[in-house]
Amino acid sequence: MIGSAGLYSLGHGTNDAQKTMGIIVVLLAALGHQGWAKASHSGLQSLIAKREIAWWVILSCHAAMALGTMAGGWRIVKTIGSRITPHLRPIGGFSAEMAAAVTLGLATIAKVPIPTTHAIGGAVSGSVPPE
Description:
This protein is mainly alpha-helical. The protein has one domain (2-127). Helices cover 75% and strands 0% of the residues. The chain has five helices and no strands. The mean pLDDT is 77.
């Protein structure tokens, strides 16, 4: 169970953090801020050429996701785990986490941004036994 939760968490960070970083980089570039790219050249062309984002942007996005998950993540887990699917057993939870982790991993490799909440919601819905 800890392994599946860790893989799901990794998928969450690699997929959702990228969307947030993209928004921040576009805003900083639009405002003409020079600190968003590692390159010494300014402008969007240097980012496109090197594909590097400054560490402070990366770390701030990951920190914001961690804080948001700590603050409100339990409500989502409680809603999905007890209200939407009250008959979910531990093996079903493990299966759902692994399915969502694999889905997020494949989406990240394919560079397709998908909502983490939708991935786990679909995986949990598919792992509940019929009544």
